[in-house]
C-alpha cells in the first residue's frame, strides 16, 4: 500500500480553506453552512468585483479541485485512480447543479429520513432554493481537469528495488 501523499493533501486542504473563506466573505449569512459560523443575522458580506459570471462559479471549481486532491492524496493511487476520483467528484457536482435546474424532480428524490440530520437536511433546500448556472458546470469541469493535472504532476513514484 502506498503512503499518503502529503503534498496533495496539503494542497487540497489549502484549497478547501480558501473556498471556506470565499463563502464566509462573499455569501449572504442565510446560506446553510455560513449561518453556522456567522449566525443568520451576521455581518454583511462583500461583493467581489469578479463575483458575477465565472467568478461566481469559483466555489464549484474549488469544490471539485479540493476534494479530488484530498481523496487522491489520501489514497495515493496511480493515474487511473486519479482519473476515477476526479470524474467522480465532477459527476457529483454536475448532478447537484443539474438538480438545481430541475428542483422539483430532484427534491422528490430526497428520502424523508434526511430531515433532522445535520448536513443531509439541507439537501432538499439546496435544490429548491439554489440557482442553476452553466458557469458552475464549466467551473466544475475545469476543476476536475486541473485536479487531475496536479495529481499526476505531484504523484510520488515509488520503485521498489529487487
Please summarize what this structure is:
This protein is mostly helical and 162 residues long. It has 7 helices and no strands.
Detailed description of the structure:
The structure is a single chain. The model has no long low-confidence stretch (mean pLDDT 82). The chain has one domain. The radius of gyration is 18 Å and the shape is globular. It starts with 5 loop residues before the first helix and ends in a 9-residue tail after the last helix. 27% of the residues are buried. It has 162 residues and is mainly alpha-helical. It contains 7 helices and no strands.
* Rounded Rg: 18 Å
What composes the largest sheet?
none
Given the helix and strand composition, which structural class is it? mainly alpha
Number of DSSP strands? 0
The topology string of helices and strands comes to: HHHHHHH
Strand content: under 5%
Low-confidence stretches: none
| Helical stretch tally | 7
- Quaternary structure type: single chain
Helix content range of the residues, please?
55-70%
Mean pLDDT across all amino acids: 82
List the domain count as a whole number: 1
Shape: globular
Give the termini distance in whole angstroms.
Answer: 17 Å
Amino acid at each position: 500500500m502506498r503512503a499518503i501523499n502529503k503534498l496533495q493533501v496539503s494542497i487540497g486542504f489549502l484549497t478547501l480553506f480558501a473556498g471556506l473563506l470565499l463563502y464566509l466573505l462573499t455569501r449572504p449569512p442565510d446560506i446553510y453552512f455560513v449561518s453556522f459560523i456567522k449566525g443568520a443575522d451576521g455581518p454583511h458580506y462583500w461583493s467581489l468585483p469578479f463575483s458575477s459570471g465565472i467568478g461566481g462559479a469559483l466555489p464549484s471549481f474549488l469544490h471539485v479541485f479540493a476534494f479530488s486532491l484530498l481523496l487522491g492524496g489520501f489514497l495515493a493511487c496511480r493515474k487511473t485512480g486519479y482519473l476515477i476520483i476526479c470524474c467522480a467528484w465532477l459527476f457529483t457536482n454536475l448532478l447537484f447543479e443539474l438538480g438545481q435546474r430541475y428542483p422539483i424532480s430532484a427534491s422528490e428524490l430526497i428520502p424523508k429520513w434526511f430531515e433532522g440530520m445535520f448536513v443531509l437536511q439541507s439537501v432538499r433546500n439546496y435544490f429548491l432554493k439554489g440557482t442553476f448556472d452553466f458557469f458552475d458546470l464549466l467551473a466544475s469541469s475545469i476543476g476536475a481537469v486541473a485536479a487531475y493535472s496536479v495529481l499526476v504532476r505531484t504523484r510520488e513514484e515509488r520503485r521498489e528495488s529487487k
